[in-house]
Every structure is written in structure tokens, then in C-alpha cells.
Design a protein that fits this description.
Elements: H1 2-7, H2 9-25, H3 30-42, H4 47-60, H5 65-77, E1 91-96, H6 103-116, E2 121-125, H7 131-144, E3 147-149, H8 157-171, E4 175-179, H9 187-202, E5 211-217, H10 221-234, E6 239-243, H11 252-261, E7 265-269, E8 277-279, H12 282-290
Parallel strand pairs: 1-4, 1-5, 2-3, 2-4, 5-6, 6-7
Antiparallel strand pairs: 7-8
Helix pairs in contact: 2-3, 3-4, 4-5, 4-11, 5-12, 6-7, 8-9, 10-11
The chain binds guanosine-5'-diphosphate.
Guanosine-5'-diphosphate binds near residues 104 and 244.
Length: about 290
């Protein structure tokens, strides 16, 4: 929570505290409305969510507009924020997202989190485009104590996924993390690859993957949101991991994502270390952003 609070310091001071001051001391008239609108947009909340928030505030005509704003934000962020843990084993989670978003790091952090719960974890290196990426993932697997399944650079992603799930089933492992395609040069290609991975693992487990987590870099703001829309079109994303909230990211992006994508944020990344992945808590997030 402290890392999140530190990370959101700038957003808090430059935008949300100002909004708080305006709401506390000014009448909610046209001028106030415009000031708040501008600050929300600057905070990366996005046009759609900003308009929704303003409309809500106008509709509610609240005595205490600052508290009302907090409630509206929590409401937007609230969803199925916990993992959908299946009753069957292994729990198969695939991770998608563009290169640089923090996908590999998140895979390592998730492996470590599950290991901490005493679970046996398998990581499948399905992003086979770069050998360096495979090696980097291997380091995370070693660090977290997960079994690592990889093929050569350029190998078929679906074949790696099949091996990882098959290994987990035959050895009675609890969790499979699949680090999948990170290139976005061509939507058709991305769709083919991700759908093939799903098709192949469904031969072993019809309900897999149980979660598809889209990893997004919070620093990229509205651009990241556009990428997310493309992923949402090609694959059934069940949750978002929002990384790099410890840095220069504007916290408002979480609100834009939740509102515009309608996909719950499940985890946040607050650093480069193995323990720097936290379950997303809407109330704690809004507290860090606003108070
Ligand atoms: P990938 O290409 O999507 O697999 O991205 P990586 O996992 O290699 O991460 C790209 C860079 O972002 C690396 O330098 C990571 O250390 C860094 N990174 C990942 N997650 C976080 C985070 O939550 N906070 C910070 N500050 N850096 C992160």
C-alpha cells in the first residue's frame, strides 16, 4: 500500500486533491464542472469515464461531493477483482500483452505468489519470438521455484502450451502460467496464435484457460487502453494486471480501463521485485489516489 501511495503521489497532488478542494469549497456549477472535467482528463481518466463521473455527480447533487466522488470511483473499479479459481486442477492462467508491458515479470511474480501459498507451479514460455525473452522467463521460474517448460526460439506457441498443461496434469501440479504472444503488429496473426493456444490446451482441459490476464503498463496511459481494446477483440480477457503504478503513471488510467473495457483489474504491479504484485483493492486504490 505504501508503494502504491508513493506511486500515486503526483496524481494525488496534481489532480485529485485539487478536485477535492474544488468540490469542498465551490458550488457545483458550470464553471466547477469544467474545472473538474479538465482535471479528470489530465489525470488520465479518459473522456468516457470523465463524462460518466460528471453526470453522476450532477444527478446525485450530493451534500458532500468529495465523498460522493470517492464512491463513484470505487463503484467503477469494483468488479470480480479476485481470480476465478476453478474447482479442477491445474488452474490454467494465460498472460497476454505487448512486449515491455511487464508480462514476463508479472508471470514470475504470480508464480512466486502461488508458491507462497504452497502451490506447485508450471510456467510455459509460449512467447517464442525472442530467445532472450525465454531466458528471462527461465530466470523468473528459477527464482520463484516453478517448473519451466520451453521450446526453441521460433517454436509453435501452442505446442509449448500443450506441453506445459500436459506436464501439470501428469504431475498433479496446481497452477499453469502461460506467457503468450507479445507482438501486436498484426491483429489477425495475434488472434490466430492466441486462439490456437486455447484450442490446443482445450484438448487436455475443456475449460482452460480459466483466466486470461491482460498485462498493461499504466505509464502508457491512453495508448495502453487502445492496445487493450485490440486484445479484448481477439481473446476473451477475464482480468487486467496494471503494472508500473509505482512510477510516473497517472492513477486515473485504472478508472479509464475499468469503465471503458468493462474488465476487472485483478492485480497491480508496484515495482520490479518478485513481491511487487498486489491483489487489486478498489477501496484502497481510491484511498491512495484521493486522501
Ligand atoms: P515484457 O516484455 O512484457 O515481458 O516485460 P518485462 O516483464 O520484461 O518488463 C519490462 C520492464 O518493466 C522490466 O524492466 C521490468 O523490470 C519492468 N517492470 C515490470 N513490472 C513493473 C512494475 O510493476 N513496476 C516497475 N517499476 N517496473 C516494472
Amino acid at each position: 500500500f505504501d508503494k502504491l501511495r508513493d506511486g500515486l503521489k503526483k496524481s494525488r497532488e496534481s489532480f485529485f486533491n485539487k478536485i477535492g478542494q474544488i468540490l469542498k469549497f465551490k458550488k457545483f456549477d458550470k464553471e466547477t464542472r469544467e474545472e473538474i472535467e479538465e482535471l479528470l482528463i489530465l489525470a488520465d481518466v479518459g473522456v468516457e469515464a470523465t463524462e460518466y463521473i460528471i453526470e453522476k455527480l450532477e444527478e446525485m447533487k450530493p451534500e458532500d461531493a468529495f465523498s460522493a466522488l470517492k464512491e463513484i470511483l470505487v463503484d467503477i473499479l469494483k468488479g470480480k477483482n479476485e481470480l476465478n479459481v476453478p474447482s479442477e486442477k491445474p488452474f490454467v492462467i494465460s498472460l497476454v500483452g505487448v512486449n515491455g508491458s511487464g508480462k514476463t515479470t508479472t508471470c514470475g511474480k504470480l508464480a512466486s505468489m502461488f508458491r507462497g501459498e504452497g502451490k506447485q507451479v508450471v510456467i510455459g514460455a509460449c512467447d517464442t519470438f525472442r530467445a532472450a525473452a525465454i531466458d528471462q522467463l527461465r530466470v523468473w521460474a528459477d527464482r520463484s521455484g516453478a517448473t519451466f517448460i520451453a521450446h526453441m526460439e521460433g517454436a509453435d506457441a501452442a505446442a509449448v502450451a500443450y506441453d506445459a498443461v500436459n506436464h501439470a496434469i501428469s504431475k498433479g501440479k496446481d497452477v499453469v502460467l502461460l506467457d503468450t504472444a507479445g507482438r501486436l503488429h498484426n491483429k489477425k496473426h495475434l488472434m490466430d496464435e492466441l486462439q490456437k493456444v486455447n484450442r490446443v490446451i482445450q484438448k487436455l482441459m475443456p475449460n482452460a484457460p480459466h483466466e486470461v490476464l491482460l498485462v498493461l503498463d499504466a505509464v502508457t496511459g491512453q495508448n495502453g487502453l487502445q492496445q487493450a481494446k485490440i486484445f479484448k477483440e481477439v481473446v476473451n480477457v477475464t482480468g487486467i494486471v496494471l503494472t508500473k503504478l509505482d512510477g510516473t503513471a497517472k492513477g486515473g488510467i485504472a478508472i479509464a480501463i475499468a469503465k471503458e473495457l468493462g474488465i476487472p483489474i485483478k492485480f497491480i504491479g508496484v515495482g520490479e521485485g518478485i513481491d511487487d504484485l498486489k491483489p487489486f483493492d478498489p477501496v484502497a486504490f481510491v484511498e491512495a489516489l484521493m486522501a
